[in-house]
Amino acid sequence: MAQAVAEEIREDMREMPEIATRTWHPVTRVLFRFVFVYLGIGLAAGWLAIALLKALHVPLRTVADVQDWWQLPALTNWFGSALFGIEKINYVGTGSGDTQVFWVSAFTWLVVAAVVAAVWSVLDRRRPAYPRLHEWFRLILRFALGLALVLYGTVKVMPSQMVFELQRLVEPFGDMSPMGALWSQTAASEPYEIALGVAELAAAALLFLPWTVTAGALLSFVATLQIFLLNLSFDVPVKLYSGQLVLLSLVLVAPQIGRITRVLLGRAVPAEPATPLFTGRLGKRIFAVGYTVLALFLIGDQVYQSWDAWHHYGSAQARSPLYGIWNVTEFTTAGQEMPALVDDNSPPHEYGDASLGPQRLRRIIFDAADGVTVQRMDESLVWFPATVDPDKQTVVFTGDVTGIFKIGTFRYERPEDGKLVLDGQISGRPVRMTLDQVDLNRYPLVARGFHWVQDVPYRR
Asked: Which residue ranges run through the membrane (predicted)?
């Protein structure tokens, strides 16, 4: 077996032709060296390394260490202090992609890429071009961009990125953040959200197939540019990352701009042979198998993560047994009924916002099974982890997801359809509430539906 493989390798070497090299313009060579370091190593390779470690279920602490290392902490800390006046950069993740560490790290990689490109240009100034390295570079960008779009697409096709929340029906529009308004607008139409995801998945599929890379890069550019513009317009904290995705798309499209222009002008464009990564038959076979296995493995992991998110906090998550919006019609504490005063400014409980305080409540909203949202008399909304046990007929409000700090405990009963009584205590004070369920069809956003024929515009 080994002898046969060795013979095939020798045969491949005999058949390996010299790659026809067209001399690149000196500026093109310098720019390639720069973007290879910045986009190829600084961004795409780092993203792929993190994705692979997560897919292999490497401990999260190790994944975080690798991510921190890729941000070049020594240089990033120095630049942060010397140039931007940041005494200490926080590397702890917050869910935002626009933190100080990401911005300063991006600047650090720009400087590193410029220095490496300068040194590389001096040491390798006689090389006329980098055709094979360019193909490897494009492969890394395709993989990284494709995986990013798989994630963006699957969390929309299996909606967990933007999820319709009942609380938005009673929240004043002006109280929403720009990001909240964008999320709510998209989640209001699940078919629209799914359609956005399908477009992103189509771009990813075209990127992974070597013969449709240009089409994939064009569609990726449109998809990522829309994401980037929305993030800018609605202050979504993923501006840096989405902008980098746009750059990757542009770099993949750039070599084909001339050919694309000729096609759009109706001119004939001959096929352009690609530089092979491997010229021998064995090398091509091994690469094809390895590429396919790695792509399917990472794509499968992304799809599974999105499927899991869809069922845990997306539109497929379990709903509360008391699902609905409930208006508080009576509120009694320590035997004394509290009137429904809109300007109720009773001081909150000592735990601040993570409390129910002694104030009368306006509404209680049961949506997902793991929490509850209360609306105070001033219309402010506060979410709490909560557990509803339909067997014991109890509701427990907690101050944290562990359930250790209990804010309120109630027994509940439903004397009739659309009625709910909660009897228990909040922070040690006896409380009894009577609530009426709101008919969700009273909201046009829920009840309006779809109409092919509209004699009069319905815009409220």
From this structure: 30-53, 101-123, 135-155, 208-233, 245-265
